Amino acid sequence: MKIAFIAHDRKKEEMVNFVIAYEHVFEGQELFSTGTTGSRIMENTDLKIHRFMSGPLGGDQQIGALVAQNEMDLIVFLRDPLMAQPHEPDINALLRLCDVQGIPLATNIATAEILVKALDRGDFAWRELVHKYKPTSDEV
Predict the structure, then answer these.
(1) Annotated binding residue at 87?
(2) C-alpha separations of 68 from 64, 71, 101 in Å
């Protein structure tokens, strides 16, 4: 499973604590993150994460490119709804791409826990089918 972590500044500590709590679930998965969030997670866990640029510098769009190609299976994006973000158009584009591709996306800790518990139970087997039977551009 390919899983991405993104967290706004005031949500980074919450993300780190979340990943620590479910580190056993994330072991063995292919993990991605925006820059600082990924660094903070790696500093506090034994997980290896492919880090993209910081969100405002294009990291959200780099993850969005994987989503557009249906190459991402789950995204945990802890957003700060009380703080305006300078790269809001990039964030909205990522959220829209997740809707278009049917990628499970958690934007708060409650939804993130539900999705990770489902992952731990093996409820994401349907994503393997999506990858196995991915239509070619001629079939779309």
Answers:
(1) yes
(2) 6, 8, 7
